[in-house]
Specification:
Elements (H helix, E strand, L loop, with lengths): L2 E5 L6 H12 L9 H8 L19 E6 L1 H7 L1 H20 L6 E5 L1
Parallel strand pairs: 1-2, 2-3
Helix pairs in contact: 2-4, 3-4
Family: Belongs to the barstar family.
InterPro entries: Barstar (IPR000468), Barstar-like_sf (IPR035905)
Pfam families: Barstar
Length: 108
Protein backbone atom coordinates (compact mmCIF):
# COMPACT_ATOMS: atom_id res chain seq x y z
CA UNK A 1 0.00 0.00 0.00
CA UNK A 2 1.44 3.42 -0.89
CA UNK A 3 2.31 5.72 2.00
CA UNK A 4 2.64 9.48 2.42
CA UNK A 5 4.38 10.61 5.59
CA UNK A 6 3.85 13.84 7.48
CA UNK A 7 6.40 14.65 10.20
CA UNK A 8 4.50 15.88 13.26
CA UNK A 9 7.70 17.30 14.74
CA UNK A 10 7.91 19.74 11.81
CA UNK A 11 4.30 20.95 12.08
CA UNK A 12 3.81 23.84 14.48
CA UNK A 13 1.33 25.92 12.49
CA UNK A 14 -0.79 25.85 9.33
CA UNK A 15 2.04 27.04 7.13
CA UNK A 16 4.18 24.10 8.30
CA UNK A 17 1.30 21.67 7.75
CA UNK A 18 0.70 22.77 4.19
CA UNK A 19 4.42 22.75 3.38
CA UNK A 20 4.68 19.17 4.70
CA UNK A 21 1.52 18.15 2.84
CA UNK A 22 2.64 19.68 -0.46
CA UNK A 23 5.90 17.79 -0.20
CA UNK A 24 4.43 14.47 1.00
CA UNK A 25 1.56 14.33 -1.50
CA UNK A 26 3.23 16.07 -4.41
CA UNK A 27 0.63 18.81 -4.66
CA UNK A 28 1.12 21.27 -7.55
CA UNK A 29 2.80 24.67 -7.14
CA UNK A 30 -0.60 26.40 -7.27
CA UNK A 31 -1.92 24.36 -4.28
CA UNK A 32 -4.15 26.72 -2.27
CA UNK A 33 -2.64 25.90 1.14
CA UNK A 34 -5.96 25.53 2.93
CA UNK A 35 -7.99 22.50 3.96
CA UNK A 36 -10.53 22.88 1.15
CA UNK A 37 -7.66 22.68 -1.36
CA UNK A 38 -6.17 19.73 0.60
CA UNK A 39 -9.47 17.85 0.31
CA UNK A 40 -9.81 18.72 -3.37
CA UNK A 41 -6.30 17.51 -4.22
CA UNK A 42 -6.71 14.21 -2.39
CA UNK A 43 -10.17 13.61 -3.83
CA UNK A 44 -8.60 13.00 -7.25
CA UNK A 45 -6.02 10.33 -6.42
CA UNK A 46 -7.73 7.88 -8.77
CA UNK A 47 -8.33 10.40 -11.57
CA UNK A 48 -4.76 11.21 -12.58
CA UNK A 49 -5.56 14.90 -13.02
CA UNK A 50 -2.22 16.16 -11.72
CA UNK A 51 -3.43 17.49 -8.36
CA UNK A 52 -1.03 15.06 -6.68
CA UNK A 53 2.02 13.19 -7.86
CA UNK A 54 0.50 10.12 -6.20
CA UNK A 55 -1.87 7.91 -8.14
CA UNK A 56 -4.08 5.10 -6.84
CA UNK A 57 -5.68 2.16 -8.57
CA UNK A 58 -9.44 1.58 -8.28
CA UNK A 59 -9.30 -0.47 -5.08
CA UNK A 60 -6.08 0.95 -3.68
CA UNK A 61 -5.80 3.19 -0.60
CA UNK A 62 -3.10 5.59 0.52
CA UNK A 63 -1.75 5.36 4.06
CA UNK A 64 -1.32 8.85 5.46
CA UNK A 65 1.22 8.28 8.21
CA UNK A 66 1.71 11.03 10.79
CA UNK A 67 5.06 10.52 12.46
CA UNK A 68 5.37 11.87 16.01
CA UNK A 69 1.59 12.36 16.20
CA UNK A 70 1.80 12.91 19.98
CA UNK A 71 4.10 15.86 19.44
CA UNK A 72 1.76 17.25 16.80
CA UNK A 73 -1.14 16.84 19.25
CA UNK A 74 0.76 18.96 21.81
CA UNK A 75 2.10 21.56 19.35
CA UNK A 76 -0.98 22.06 17.20
CA UNK A 77 -4.01 20.02 18.33
CA UNK A 78 -6.35 21.95 16.01
CA UNK A 79 -4.31 20.82 13.00
CA UNK A 80 -4.44 17.15 13.97
CA UNK A 81 -8.19 17.42 14.59
CA UNK A 82 -8.68 19.08 11.19
CA UNK A 83 -6.56 16.39 9.53
CA UNK A 84 -8.74 13.66 11.01
CA UNK A 85 -11.90 15.45 9.84
CA UNK A 86 -10.50 16.09 6.36
CA UNK A 87 -9.39 12.49 5.82
CA UNK A 88 -12.99 11.53 6.62
CA UNK A 89 -14.28 14.18 4.18
CA UNK A 90 -12.06 12.84 1.38
CA UNK A 91 -13.27 9.29 2.02
CA UNK A 92 -16.89 10.51 2.03
CA UNK A 93 -16.38 11.98 -1.45
CA UNK A 94 -15.14 8.64 -2.72
CA UNK A 95 -18.07 6.83 -1.06
CA UNK A 96 -20.53 9.25 -2.68
CA UNK A 97 -19.10 8.16 -6.04
CA UNK A 98 -19.51 4.48 -5.17
CA UNK A 99 -15.78 3.99 -4.58
CA UNK A 100 -13.85 2.52 -1.71
CA UNK A 101 -12.16 4.89 0.77
CA UNK A 102 -8.88 6.21 -0.59
CA UNK A 103 -7.17 7.32 2.64
CA UNK A 104 -6.15 5.54 5.81
CA UNK A 105 -4.80 7.71 8.63
CA UNK A 106 -2.03 6.19 10.75
CA UNK A 107 -0.95 8.11 13.87
CA UNK A 108 2.48 6.99 15.02
Amino acid sequence: MPTARLNGMEIRNWQDFHRESQSAFGFPEFYGRNMDAWIDCLSTLRDGDGMSQLMLGPDEALDVEVLCAGILRRQAPEILDALIDCVAAVNERYAENGEKPALSLLLR
